[in-house]
Every structure is written in C-alpha cells, then in structure tokens.
Description:
It is built from five helices and seven strands. The longest helix has 23 residues, at 153-175. It has a seven-stranded mixed β-sheet, sandwiched between helices. The chain is of the alpha/beta class. It is globular and about 55 Å long. A hairpin with a 6-residue loop joins β3 (75-78) and β4. It has a single domain, classed as P-loop containing nucleotide triphosphate hydrolases (Rossmann fold, 3-Layer(aba) Sandwich). 33% of the residues are buried. The protein has helices at 18-29, 48-59, 98-101, 104-110, 153-175; strands at residues 8-15, 37-41, 75-78, 85-89, 112-116, 130-136, 143-150. Helices cover 33% and strands 24% of the residues. α1 (18-29) packs across α2 (48-59).
Amino acid sequence: MAEKDFPSRVVKLDLPDLAATETxxxxxxxxxxxxxxxxxxxxxxxxxxxxxxxxxxxxxxxVKEDVPxxxxxLAQIYDLAEFPVWxxxxxxLAKAEDAVELGIEDAFADGVSLIEWPGRLGPxxxxxxxxILLTQGVAVDARQAVLxxxxxxxxxxxxxxxxxxxxxxxxxxxxxx
Length: 177
C-alpha cells in the first residue's frame, strides 16, 4: 500500500505558549507504547527539542532528566522504567542509511523514538507513526501544532480530538453561568 493510501488522521492545535507545548508533549507521552515512532517537524527553533524535553520528563515520572539537544551526537537514549526513549536529531544526517549505525532499528523495536527532522530517514521512516509539525504562531512563544496520525495513531488522535472538543464545550458551557 502506498504511503498516500495509508489511513491517517489530522488534528490541528493552537499552542499559545511554551506551557501549552509542554502540556501537549506530556499528553502524547502518556499515550505511547513500546515501538511507537514520533516524528517532530518544523523549522529551526520551532520547539521540537522543547517538546522532546517535556515528553522525556513526563516519561521519567517527574524525575528531571538532563535532556540536551542531540544535535551533535545525533542520538540520545534515556533508559526509563517501562521502556527506553530514543531522541534523534537528524538535521546533520548525511544519508538515511547512516541512521542504521545510530541504532534506529533497535529504537523502533525496543522503545519509543522521538525523531527531529524525520524526513531525512526517507524509506526507513515507519509508516505507523505520529507526525507533529510545529510552526511559529502569532506571539513569540506561540506555536501551531499539526498532528498527523498514521496506523495505530489514527484512533489515538480521534480520542485526542474528542477530548479537545469536550474541553471546549465545557469551557463554553461554563461561561454561560
């Protein structure tokens, strides 16, 4: 089946500040399973590493892990209680095949993979994944997030979309008091 024929689900979110981006990261962190792949897209400074940092802190159960950007090391592994989280920054990756030397196939099998610049993986990028594109919003710290779920993430994003609609409904209903 071609990538374009693979089922997907899109959710768009406005993130007014860094705290909202971190909240999204924590939400996603609590809905991952071993083997999940999350692609983090966006320009330099879009908030990909900030998202990854909040995600890893959430998976660490409140323990404040040091989460440096793996820009120069390309990969950082966090051995957490349930399963490892692999954080990749592929901005400097010369060719997709080089990712195999980083252990990306092990990451796909054994843990959760957060991949900045996922497009650099080309055909190595799994079809079953969550893509998150972060773009600059109107305010300095504001971002827009476009989440595209493929495979098992389709239903998980439907749940997120339903929860978001419920929160908006409750906020509107509460303002009528």
